[in-house]
């Protein structure tokens, strides 16, 4: 049977590369910074321009597909994951990094069918690393197969996390209690690249054992989630059980032992779901 989704994936890789060129070019200019939900939730004209490029180019080729894009949702479009083929786009994952020229910035494109991610493309544009995964066909970086770390001892692990873009004091308390618990296990270290997508690619690459966060959105993690699982890793909710793409919570780890150990230390909380009416 013909591989019907391959041309969509090829298009995603090509347009992510083009988007990366725009991002690199924009770093040479002054960046106009605007805010969204709060003073530290940033957006630039480049986020909007890149999202338009990805959506318009994909719509021309695949007019029946649906789209969930970070900036379109910020502009009032709905964020409902249906069974239809759906592109889930973060035009710049790591906008704060982009604003400050901190060198980890990704274009993230996930593609779902029947609410399952079928392929994921994360282009780390300043490192020029193209991470790709196709359901059942493995995960790659610039064409080289990826494999998660084999470490099963949490005390020998590096864990990635982020502080997110909310400064709600109650949420910050939970975040710092979790961080303290995990650091004091102890683990070898805690890191954060400033982009959920790249943190997940680091798990897939075997550089860090796990990444967790409460506060992410579906566009931050759709592509990365498949890259992790196709590299042999696991995905979980922060309270254990299945990860739910719309729940704004994730644990992505190299194996179940590490994931479950981290879950025990996370002081969880609930946020409004991405698909809340
Ligand atoms: C953000 C980044 C950041 C994470 C936030 C995300 P954005 O995405 O992935 O690392 O902590 O939760 O919202 O806003 O730069 O696309």
Molecular structure report:
GO terms for molecular function: inositol monophosphate 1-phosphatase activity; metal ion binding. It is a single chain. The protein has 277 residues and is an alpha+beta fold. The chain has two domains: 6-145, Fructose-1,6-Bisphosphatase, subunit A, domain 1 (Fructose-1,6-Bisphosphatase, Chain A, domain 1); 154-265, D-Maltodextrin-Binding Protein, domain 2, CATH 3.40.190. Helices cover 35% and strands 24% of the residues. The chain contains eight helices and 14 strands. It has helices at 6-26, 45-61, 70-74, 95-100, 169-183, 196-205, 218-230, 256-265; strands at 33-35, 42-44, 66-69, 86-93, 106-113, 116-124, 129-134, 139-141, 144-145, 158-161, 189-191, 210-214, 234-236, 249-253. The strands form three sheets. The protein has a seven-stranded mixed β-sheet, sandwiched between helices. A hairpin with a 6-residue loop joins strand 1 (33-35) and strand 2 (42-44). Helix 6 (196-205) packs parallel to helix 7. The termini are far apart.
Summary of the model, kept short:
The chain has 277 residues and is an alpha+beta fold. The protein has helices spanning 6-26, 45-61, 70-74, 95-100, 169-183, 196-205, 218-230, 256-265, and strands spanning 33-35, 42-44, 66-69, 86-93, 106-113, 116-124, 129-134, 139-141, 144-145, 158-161, 189-191, 210-214, 234-236, 249-253. A hairpin with a 2-residue loop joins strand 5 and strand 6 (116-124).
């Amino acid at each position: 049977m013909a591989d019907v989704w391959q041309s969509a994936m090829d298009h995603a890789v090509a347009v992510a590369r083009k988007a990366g060129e725009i991002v690199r070019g924009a770093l040479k200019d002054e960046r106009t910074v605007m805010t969204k939900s709060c003073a530290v939730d940033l957006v630039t004209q480049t986020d909007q321009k890149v999202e338009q490029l990805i959506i318009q180019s994909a719509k021309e080729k695949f007019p029946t597909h649906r789209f969930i894009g970070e900036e379109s949702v910020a502009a009032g479009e709905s964020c409902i994951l249906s069974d239809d083929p759906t592109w889930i786009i973060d035009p710049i994952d790591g906008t704060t990094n982009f604003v400050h020229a901190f060198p980890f910035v990704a274009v993230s494109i996930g593609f779902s069918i029947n609410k399952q991610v079928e392929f994921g493309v994360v282009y780390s544009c300043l490192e020029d690393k193209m991470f790709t995964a196709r359901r059942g066909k493995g995960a790659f970086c610039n064409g080289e197969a990826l494999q998660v770390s084999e470490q099963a001892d949490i005390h020998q692990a590096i864990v990635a996390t982020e502080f997110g873009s909310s400064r709600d004091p109650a949420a910050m308390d939970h975040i710092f209690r979790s961080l303290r618990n995990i650091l004091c296990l102890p683990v070898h270290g805690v890191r954060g690249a400033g982009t959920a997508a790249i943190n997940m690619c680091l798990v897939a690459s075997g550089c860090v054992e796990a990444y967790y966060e409460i506060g992410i959105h579906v566009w931050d993690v759709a592509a990365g989630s498949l890259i992790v699982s196709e590299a042999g890793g696991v995905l979980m909710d922060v309270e254990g059980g299945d990860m739910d793409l719309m729940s704004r919570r994730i644990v992505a780890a190299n194996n179940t032992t590490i994931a479950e150990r981290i879950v025990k230390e996370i002081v969880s909380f609930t946020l409004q779901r991405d698909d809340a009416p």
